[in-house]
Amino acid sequence: MKKAQAASVKGLRVRALYCEKQDEASLAQQFRRLGIEGSFADALPDPADAGRYDLVMFDSDHASLASHGEDLRWPDLPRIALIGAETPSRLLWTIRQGVSSHLRKPVRFEGVLSACLLARDAYRAQQAMRERVDELEQRLKSRRFVFSAQLMLMRERGLDEHQAFSALRTLAMQRQVSVERLSMELLAGRACDGPN
Asked: Reading across the β-sheet that carries 13-17, which strands appear in turn?
């Protein structure tokens, strides 16, 4: 049951941009068949309207998109490119738009389900990776505070490097904060009952 739900796109809100009439008709038919709430437009959605959609599709060959160059402001959503021209420059431009999946043009009567599921999954994985990178970058920036707190404990309490870090880690677990956060508080004098 759970696997069937994960493979469902029913109720998915898709905004399709700059589609040719033939592709629009094929997409509309597939949207209806799959229970997707699809809408079509010839303008980029405002990034502030990202909450109105779950996914964006766009015709990567459309002249209006190409005229924007590299500086398109996409909403932070999974993107599916409709690809017809396989020229290196067009494919490179499409890749730079941060697509999560693609469909070949002309759009046929299959492929939308796969493209939507793959796009959602790739987007979620990319988001999780971005969050993890942000977290690791923040921790890396905070390492200097950990090192300084360790040195302070080594000087004031006569601990060696491993004992000082162990004391920081133990107190951080007791307070349910990160070692980095505890170190900053300790250095700022807010961790009054520092580690023994």
From this structure: 37-41, 13-17, 55-59, 79-83, 101-104
What domains appear along the chain, each with residue ranges and CATH number? 2-110 (3.40.50.2300), 131-187 (1.10.10.10)
Predicted pLDDT at 175:
94
Q: What is the DSSP string of 130-151?
A: HHHHHHHHHHHHHHHHHHHHHH
**What are the Cα distances from residue 27, in Å, to 35, 100, 116, 176?**
12, 18, 12, 50
Residue 52 phi/psi, 5-degree rounding, is -80, -15
Q: Is the pLDDT of residue 148 over 60?
A: yes
Confidence (pLDDT) at 69: 66
pLDDT tens digits, 31-75 = 999 999 999 999 887 777 778 999 999 999 988 886 666 678 888
- H helices of the chain, in order, are 2-6, 21-34, 63-66, 88-96, 112-157, 161-175, 179-187
Residues 6+ apart with CB under 8 A from 27: 16, 19, 38, 40, 57, 107, 112
CA proximity to 120, closest of 9, 29, 10: 9
What pLDDT, on the 0 to 100 scale, is given for residue 1?
40
Which residues make beta-bridge pairs with 83? 104
